[in-house]
Amino acid sequence: MTPPFRADHVGSLLRPPHLLEARTKRATGEITAEQLRAIEDDAIRDVVRMQRDVGLRSATDGEFRRTAWHMDFIYRLGGIRPTDEKIQVHFRNADGELDFESAALAVDAPIRLTETIFGQDFAFLAEATDPEVTAKLTIPSPSMVHYRGGRAAIDPAVYPDEEQFWADLSAAYADQVRRVAALGCRYLQLDDTSLAYLNDPDQRRQLTERGDDADHQHLRYIRQINAAIANRPAELRVTTHMCRGNFRSSWAAEGGYDFVAEALFSELAVDGFFLEYDDDRSGGFAPLRFVPPGKMVVLGLVTTKRGDLESKDTLKRRIDEAARYVPLDQICLSPQCGFSSTVEGNVLTYDEQVAKLDLIVETAAEVWG
């Protein structure tokens, strides 16, 4: 009866073509910001209705107002700005390789919260969601601010001591958590690719080369997330979602959860973990042995990276395998990631997306009743 639900989903959903067209028109000045928002409003009402109709107990706005799952939030934190430099993330898929490029970030003033980020967006979502469905807000975790640039992105004149950077960052997030809870948010998800990326030896090598302590980075991230959510209201459920990259059906990292598992599951003070488990890249279920009683594990067994529909029997078998390490009563089912972490979306159709959500709801009902 409380989040995360037996059948759940990560958050982002495929943008409808007319919404993509409207975003293009706004970028070229053909329509106003108010006209774009009205089109977004209608598209969100439709996608909230879809989530209800397939039987989900949670609903998001599909992240329809965002370009990407993380940077739209991060750039609205006081003290952080985009730069002319570019960050390139190398992605892979079954057919080859591609690169994702976005603006880098710079921390050039003390970090603070100057507004309730996505506050107006959440208020609209809550109003559009039926009472029996829980409106869910997704935001990037504090870790993502650091993982994108590391110490090199922080102006030493602003933060000669990195400890103060971390203190201000967690304080800004704690303020955000309090504000969205005051708006009525009861389900908040902190999306965090870094805690999954750190399982990949190549990712740790890259961090070491830029001067970070790759072997202990996850411990710092866990502490700072905990600081951000420590004083959340009792009625606010907080989860985290971890994946290895999601851009146009491609991924950036590989490896099981073994490297971070013991600290992650035993120390991170969230109510549930959304975990990517759609193929061999994610490793086995043995790390789940560290999940303590009372914490929920949402198995991302259904891929969002292609349209082929999984076998219900295979999903049930894999749930049984996971239940060897964590009690069945602590397990839920979801897709492995969002369907559209960036505005471009993954390579599948709207109907295939809906079919996958249907499958998750049906399978969860048969497993847990």
Architecture overview:
The chain has helices spanning 17-27, 33-54, 71-74, 119-128, 143-147, 162-182, 194-197, 201-209, 217-229, 258-267, 312-322, 350-368; strands spanning 58-59, 78-93, 96-112, 134-135, 137-140, 187-191, 237-242, 272-276, 296-302, 331-335. The chain has 369 residues and is an alpha/beta fold. Strand 9 (296-302), helix 11 and strand 10 form a beta-alpha-beta unit. Helix 9 runs parallel beside helix 10. The chain is globular and about 60 Å long.
In short, what is this structure?
This protein has 369 residues and is α/β, with parallel strands linked by helices.
DSSP strand tally: 10
* Major pleated sheet: 6 strands, parallel
Shape: globular
Runs in which pLDDT lies below 50 for 5 or more consecutive residues are none
Structural class: alpha/beta
Q: Helix share of residues?
A: 25-40%
In sequence order, what are the helices and strands, one letter per element? HHEHEEHEEHHEHHHEHEEHEH
**Cα-atom Rg, whole angstroms?**
19 Å
Strand coverage percent: 15-25%
Oligomer: single chain
Number of helices: 12
Distance between the termini: 13 Å
